[in-house]
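Sample pair:
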Amino acid sequence: MKLFFDGSSVKQPTSSSIKKMNSNFKVKCLYAMTLIILIGTVAIFWGLNDVNAQTSQNSSVFKVIVQVVNNGNLDEQGTVHVTMDGSRSPHVLNNQMFPALQTTSFTFEFSSAEAPVGKGFVAEVVYGDDEHKRAYGTNTPSKSPETVAITIP
């Protein structure tokens, strides 16, 4: 028998209290396992939906290739934007280098829903001290990417 410092002894649990503790423990374990299964199922379901969405998007993509031709003797640094007509979300590549006397290509991808056949787009290069050059294009019925060239000095 163990004694506490105050002289009282440890009480041994009765068999009914042991059964009650075991049943409470079983209920808590069952609840925890149910939550884990539910959370796992939801996570797997969301993961599968994302994979399906990516697969369907890749089959219908509109590409714009922007070729920046730097005819100057100095390298330039700037930003390339492509925006579909009527869209508020341009695709942007910041801090791009345009080497002197070279052509650099950049590819932008849009979903076919955002860029139906016949819809126009604007490609813009901003370089130097806020110098702007633009090129305009249209999504044609051909299944090939649209290419625009922008020449900077």
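Residues 49-58 have pLDDT under 50 and may be disordered.
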